[in-house]
Amino acid sequence: MQSVRLPAVWSMVILTTIARVADGLPLAASMQEDEQSGRDLQQYQNQAKQLCRKLNAQSPTRCTLEARDMAFHYLIENGVCYLVLCEAAFPKKLAFAYLEDLQTEFHDQYGKRVPTVSRPYSFIEFDMYIQKTKKSYIDSRARRNLGSINTELQDVQRIMVANIEEVLQRGEALSALDTKASNLSSLSKKYRSDAKYLNVRSTYAKVAVGAVFFITLIVYVRFWWL
Asked: Which of 52, 54, 185, 221 fits as disulfide partner to 19, beta carbons 3.0 to 4.6 Å?
């Protein structure tokens, strides 16, 4: 009987990068070779570097950036960005739980040294922990238990989503995108408030018309029939 070939366990999590937000300096990284799929991983790696250089203190602390059949997910804590590239089908909740795990360990080990280093990939030895953690998050048991993952993440459905190519081509910091999203949210709230106000005014107008008609009817009956 012909055996069924299962996909490589690494295929869902492709690239992990840790960078300093202040200047985009890469601190640690881990990339899975993906020769079988024929993906242009160099392109995604370049996009990850560009994205890290665009982040600043005003950037959203959690964000998902769609990249064709892939997705970048990142979180920012204590001036450090934790970025992962996954296949689009990889559950967002699992991706952010993975990043939270990396953040906790990395901060414990290197948090105090992050502001002082100047050499790229000063903590490249952290790749060992990345590899171990990656395996624990993408094996079948972890994926089956997705619903019971205990994290303090905000609702993943509310995490901002954008397109990586649009963000990079605009040439503006990701904080600008966040500002525009906030502005849209404010406009939406104002629209809802205005709509509610107009509905109330419309109701009052209808009541007023009814009252005028009723009073007119009473006057007519009184003077013409009594």
From this structure: 52
